[in-house]
Amino acid sequence: xxxxxxxxxxxxxxxxxxxxxxxxxxxxxxxxxxxxxxxxxxxxxxxxxxxxxxxxxxxxxxxxxxxxxxxxxxxxxxxxxxxxxxxxxxxxxxxxxxxxxxxxxxxxxxxxxxxxxxxxxxx
Length: 123
Prior knowledge:
By secondary structure, this protein is of the alpha+beta class. The chain has a single domain, classed as 2-Layer Sandwich (Gyrase A, domain 2), CATH 3.30.1360. Helices cover about 55% and strands about 20% of the residues. The chain contains three helices and four strands, in the order ββαββαα. It has helices at about 25-35, 60-100, 105-120; strands at about 5-10, 10-20, 40-45, 50-55. It has a four-stranded antiparallel β-sheet, covered by helices on one side. A hairpin with a 4-residue loop joins strand 3 and strand 4 (about 50-55). It is elongated, with a radius of gyration of 25 Å.
């Protein structure tokens, strides 16, 4: 890793990412996933550069933390790429699924009336 990109000082890992390579949403998604393992801060203007600060628990290995963050970053980027590629297909499938699941409201109200009549007779 480039020394300018990753710095470790006072137990805090600072990762500087060019926003031309990673979107803000990708970085935020990866940072959010790291919350279970360390403290996370996202800084920067998001136009030129985004800085992520990771502070691991005492005694934790910073190299493993850095590797884990870049793995999350890669996964988040792939998810966003797939969403852009297949977003329209996903939306269409959801629309079709919802249309098939939601019953006709007029028929549903008739069914409820029948159930109410049965309940009244049984009481």
